[in-house]
């Protein structure tokens, strides 16, 4: 009677994953339209496709990223105060599905730990995807390119974000996942939140 502590109810624990964030898709018709860029626009936005980083995968394939700036409202190439940094990724096309359909389906996926797709460019032999730019670079840069190690709290935050993104992607039945997880595919923003490409 006397110590003021209440008995705890026994809780049943489940090992099934329950996503922390929902819903995985916007309702039909609510999808933000992806911007279709021309090669000329992206050439201007990226200062003639000046390379930001080049990533070589374990299988020998190479992906090139270009940093550019677009207007935050119109998505046109920009050099003014309204500019937004973007990452332009050269695509490797392995799917028989039309490229624009693949980009549109990627544009339907929204999660706090996935890089946001803003648009694409498919002209002749050029295949480019335009993403939000993550200002702190990749996890690979922080693990292998920095002299100072990341604090454990930051490492845990990054790992949890990546785990949530992977669990989210696996919960989507609509889109097959065939991407290997690499540190250069994990981008970090200003507050060290992880965003998978």
Automatic annotation (TrEMBL):
Gene Ontology cellular-component terms listed: plasma membrane
Subcellular location(s) of the protein: Cell membrane
Principal subcellular localisation of the protein: membrane
Gene Ontology molecular function terms on file: ATP binding; protein kinase activity
Keyword Ligase among UniProt keywords: no
InterPro entries named among the record's database cross-references: Kinase-like_dom_sf, Plant_Ser_Thr_Prot_Kinase, Prot_kinase_dom, Ser-Thr/Tyr_kinase_cat_dom
Key words of the record: Cell membrane, Membrane
Presence of the UniProt keyword Cell membrane in the record: yes
Domain Protein kinase residues, every copy: 1-197
Name by which UniProt lists this protein: Protein kinase domain-containing protein
Organism: Brassica oleracea var. oleracea
Lineage: Eukaryota, Viridiplantae, Streptophyta, Embryophyta, Tracheophyta
